[in-house]
């Protein structure tokens, strides 16, 4: 009798893979939908996932989460990330996952009850509002132009934000604004009369849950308790949030690029040219080999950074290196998958062109590649780090 060597975690991953292939991928439309349609799909998938014990990777088991650490989350998120709806089904699509990660560190008991707990339970949705049009903050957070001033027992916020993911469906926003003490964070309900979502900004992404909103904050009064954490610490908080967010993006996008390459491999093993299968041409084999090498390196870097985070080590330098590498590698892999599938690759019959459009913006958000490269190089030279 052969003894199975599958661990409970292996069995769990197989179950998740079946769920993604059989329940989640068939619900993909690869189109921007109304927020209501997107929410209906999200709720359906979340119920289906919870019914078989699949919840947010890092949320506590007591509220339906999986209670995993960062390293364990890598494998789960890679499988879930094979579909853009996978993280939605597991209630950890951005901005929910990075917002809950950072709120966990910052909230007081009242904020936990009103914001974090409902967010973790899927009853309220969040967005994170930092980026501003020129001359405000983009790559350079020091250019932050939104202001918050004290008025009696309240704060009054004024500012202009854009590209705020999920703003169209959010119940509250984490707003980054300048105060006397420096950069500070505030919790603002989106039904506050001073919080105006003026439009969803269409992007090249084929699907965006809750859109990317442009927001005007005008004479926006919030109570003193809206201040999150300590005033003046906002840039440190943004760093924490971004580090975790980057890692989750790396994990899910490795899954998406891996799916793209699976589709390409299937194609080249069924299509012939010059009397043999495309997959028997060495140039094609070389492209596939390069894709696997890139994904292997991307996985290893992502897992290494995750392990460091689990060990409580600083990941500032390593997460920058991983983010640059993974963002570029997954895009190159998806681009190769499109190339290998010829005309079908650029069509809408396969999801490859949509995957490519989904992956491209990752080289810009959570720190553009150039900004990370500049920071890595500066750190290396100033600290005399050895390669
Ligand atoms: C799909 C998407 C979702 C987003 N979601 C959110 C969100 O939820 N919340 C939020 O607050 N923001 C969000 N953003 C905004 C994102 O954080 C910014 O796009 C990012 O910080 C870059 O700012 P910017 O677009 O103003 O680019 P800019 O600062 O104008 O920079 C433009 C380009 O200049 C180059 N560059 C910039 N600085 C340097 C430098 N020091 N050295 C060399 N080159 C440089 C880079 O190539 C960069 O891409 C999102 C963006 C996208 C595309």
TrEMBL record:
<dbReference type="Pfam" id="PF02770">
    <property type="entry name" value="Acyl-CoA_dh_M"/>
</dbReference>
<dbReference type="InterPro" id="IPR006091">
    <property type="entry name" value="Acyl-CoA_Oxase/DH_mid-dom"/>
</dbReference>
<comment type="subunit">
    <text>Homodimer.</text>
</comment>
<dbReference type="InterPro" id="IPR050741">
    <property type="entry name" value="Acyl-CoA_dehydrogenase"/>
</dbReference>
<keyword id="KW-0560">Oxidoreductase</keyword>
<dbReference type="InterPro" id="IPR037069">
    <property type="entry name" value="AcylCoA_DH/ox_N_sf"/>
</dbReference>
<dbReference type="InterPro" id="IPR009100">
    <property type="entry name" value="AcylCoA_DH/oxidase_NM_dom_sf"/>
</dbReference>
<dbReference type="InterPro" id="IPR009075">
    <property type="entry name" value="AcylCo_DH/oxidase_C"/>
</dbReference>
<dbReference type="Pfam" id="PF02771">
    <property type="entry name" value="Acyl-CoA_dh_N"/>
</dbReference>
<keyword id="KW-0285">Flavoprotein</keyword>
<dbReference type="Pfam" id="PF00441">
    <property type="entry name" value="Acyl-CoA_dh_1"/>
</dbReference>
<feature type="domain" description="Acyl-CoA oxidase/dehydrogenase middle">
    <location>
        <begin position="127"/>
        <end position="220"/>
    </location>
</feature>
<dbReference type="InterPro" id="IPR013786">
    <property type="entry name" value="AcylCoA_DH/ox_N"/>
</dbReference>
<comment type="similarity">
    <text>Belongs to the acyl-CoA dehydrogenase family.</text>
</comment>
<dbReference type="InterPro" id="IPR046373">
    <property type="entry name" value="Acyl-CoA_Oxase/DH_mid-dom_sf"/>
</dbReference>
<feature type="domain" description="Acyl-CoA dehydrogenase/oxidase N-terminal">
    <location>
        <begin position="11"/>
        <end position="123"/>
    </location>
</feature>
<keyword id="KW-0274">FAD</keyword>
<protein>
    <submittedName>
        <fullName>Acyl-CoA dehydrogenase family protein</fullName>
    </submittedName>
</protein>
<feature type="domain" description="Acyl-CoA dehydrogenase/oxidase C-terminal">
    <location>
        <begin position="232"/>
        <end position="381"/>
    </location>
</feature>
<dbReference type="InterPro" id="IPR036250">
    <property type="entry name" value="AcylCo_DH-like_C"/>
</dbReference>
């Amino acid at each position: 009798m052969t003894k199975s060597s599958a661990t409970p975690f292996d069995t769990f991953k197989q179950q998740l893979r079946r769920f993604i292939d059989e329940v989640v991928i068939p619900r993909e439309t690869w189109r921007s939908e109304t927020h209501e349609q997107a929410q209906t799909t999200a709720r359906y998938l979340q119920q289906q996932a919870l019914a078989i014990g699949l919840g947010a990777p890092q949320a506590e088991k007591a509220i339906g989460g999986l209670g995993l650490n960062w390293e364990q989350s890598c494998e789960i998120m890679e499988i879930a990330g094979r579909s853009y709806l996978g993280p939605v089904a597991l209630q950890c699509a951005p901005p929910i996952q990075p917002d809950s990660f950072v709120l966990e560190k910052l909230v007081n008991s009242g904020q936990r009850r009103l914001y974090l707990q409902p967010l973790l339970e899927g009853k309220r949705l969040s967005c994170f509002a930092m980026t501003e049009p020129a001359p405000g903050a983009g790559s350079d957070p020091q250019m932050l132009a939104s202001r918050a001033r004290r008025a009696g027992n309240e704060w009054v916020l004024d500012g202009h934000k854009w590209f705020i993911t999920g703003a169209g469906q959010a119940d509250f926003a984490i707003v980054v604004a300048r105060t006397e003490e420096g950069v500070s964070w505030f919790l603002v309900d989106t039904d506050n009369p001073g919080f105006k979502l003026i439009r969803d900004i269409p992007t090249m992404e084929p699907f965006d849950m809750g859109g990317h909103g442009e927001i005007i904050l005008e004479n926006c009064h919030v109570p003193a308790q809206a201040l999150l954490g300590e005033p003046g610490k906002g840039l440190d908080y943004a760093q924490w949030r971004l580090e975790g967010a980057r890692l989750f993006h790396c994990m899910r996008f490795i899954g998406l690029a891996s799916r793209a390459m699976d589709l390409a491999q299937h194609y080249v093993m069924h299509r012939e040219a010059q009397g043999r299968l495309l997959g028997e041409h060495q140039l094609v084999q070389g492209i596939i080999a390069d894709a696997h090498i890139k994904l292997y390196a991307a996985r290893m870097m992502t897992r290494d950074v995750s392990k460091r985070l689990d060990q409580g080590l600083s990941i500032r330098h390593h997460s920058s290196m991983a983010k640059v590498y993974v963002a570029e590698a997954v895009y190159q892999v998806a681009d190769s998958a499109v190339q290998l599938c010829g005309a079908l690759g650029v069509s809408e019959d396969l999801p490859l062109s949509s995957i490519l459009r989904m992956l491209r913006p990752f080289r810009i958000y959570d720190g553009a590649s150039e900004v990370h490269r500049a920071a890595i190089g500066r750190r290396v030279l100033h600290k005399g780090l050895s390669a």
